[in-house]
User: Fold this.
Amino acid sequence: MDMETDQIHQIDVGNLLAFNPSHRFPSAPSSREELVKECVTEGTKLVQAIADTLFNFPSTETSDGPLVQLPRPTTKLPREKHLPRPKPPTKWEEFALKKGIQKRKKDKIVYDENTDQFKRRHGYDRVNDDNDIPIIEAKASDEPGEDPFAKRLDDKKKRVGKQEKNRLQNLKTAAKAGALPSHVQLAVTALPISGTKTQPQKIGKDALGDVAGLAATSTASGGKFDKKLPGEKPPKKQGKHHKYLPVLPHRGKVDEEKEQTNKVLSKLLSKHSHEILNVGKAINMYNDKKEKKKSGRSDKLKAKKDITKKKPYANKAQ
Amino acid sequence: MMEIRTPKTHKAKRVLEKRAPKLVENGKKTLILHGTKTSATVSSVLMELYRLKKGGAIKYSRRNENIRPFESGGETSLEFFSLKTDCSIFVYGSHTKKRPDNLVLGRMYDHHVYDLIEVGIENFKSLLSFSYDKKIAPHEGSKPFICFTGEGFENIPELKQLKEVLTDLFRGEVVENLNLTGLDRAYICTAISPTKVFLTHCAIKLKKSGTIVPRIELVEVGPSMDLVIRRNRLPNEGLRKEAMKSSKDKPKKKVKNVDQNDVLGKLGRVYIPEQEVGKIPMADKSKGVKRERREGKMKKNKEEGSASKKLKESE
Assistant:
């Protein structure tokens, strides 16, 4: 009986899973309760089949109860994360491999010849401590004004800096290969800058929003028909910013465009036009333009002016 | 400019190591959340599912309006939550006129959506409505039996996917040692039609039988519902192959010429090929070491020596 059921049911003991593919409901179940009852009986058979194999395993007695070693599950289920990728060798590891350098285990206690004692390699009262050197002998290659102790400190700082740079490079190559160690995260703090030495300013959320809004509405239809990215909010100032009136007048309608320009013109030529138009500024601008035209369109051939220097005012209106 | 960020506390480091990709993975955690509108059935289903999976589930109580699992852009929030909570299965409940009492079961691979299956809930019976002897109530976090009945689970692709997803959902941790007294729950899934699955949760009663194997009796305790398959999305073939990859796929290569001896330990056999002396590759091929050069030099020195001698003699 057991053998028969094992053949009919597909059992995966590692997962405590059983599947009976050959059950068919003989007739449309009459009521909900009948259906439920039948399902539960079928389920019982399956659980019994798993338990048969399970309880026949060799068990070890513990205080909580009989412990049984489960086999590996046979149903394949997808992983939740990718397999760990092999770490690419660091620059030093590559070099060591090439040269055949083996790693040697260092002792924690080292014999110090200066004091004829065993001292620890790192930490308090260590061997070869930099601060302990009382005298540094001068060499022929030394300059007279140089401080050798400061020089030592400087060299150490440079070495430490170089090591940090190398470490960062190694992590970057590991990150490129997708094999960054789990506890390290590489974060970009600033974009690479070229040209000026100024630090890029952090753009605030509002500024970004304004720029995004400008960009979004700078299409011909004011950004109305653009495909939006998921999670993108509608731009704050939708629609066109300028309303251009039709040039040719519509049947029966007043020529609005003509009216608009006429309005502006009448304002300029009116008695109180000096309140609207800054005549002095207008004259200056006109003169400047004339000057530019006179000198010819050779801006590109001209030597580039330093824009940080203040331009002396060419023609002041007298 | 790149900055290296490492955790400053041991606890943080342990958390990051736990979440890192490993050869043998931890049990999958489930994220339970709901959408804009939920009905009473959906909210109780989500609550009871959370209670069933207490140790390995996280339940969000707020409604999430911008999550639409089946739309291309609507998964970003889900992926973000999955990343934050380290959950690779999610259960998203919603209720709309078109899809009443809707449940989307989905899985993630590398915190990106792997596959989805949408089911509708019918004939839901809450676990509070079942009356049973409290002594046989299943304990929290016990490993369940999972049983599937019906040929539909083999023939119909949607049901096949649902079977896989339900196994993943209910499985919990993969354990090596199991305590036989701790077996107290079973999930029974029956395919009652090509589109409907009846799911119920039962407690196990072990009764004495003549042999070591006890007689099993199931008593319905938990929620029971009908799942009606609606939509589904299968993973693309490449992604599926990658996700199913496991480290033990390649069988260990048989190591040749190595013997294990009880007396001598590990013995190896080394085969030395016949040496052809004339054809041995020379290691040092630098110019100055070549024999012709050396001999030429020696000759020259001799000549020079003799020449200088001659000079000396002549002088």
The beta strands of chain A are 10-12, 17-20, 59-61, 66-69, 109-112, 117-120, 185-188. Confidence is low (pLDDT under 50) at residues 1-6 of chain A. Residues 131 and 252 of chain A are 98 Å apart (CA to CA). Chain A touches chain B through 67 residues (CB under 8 Å).
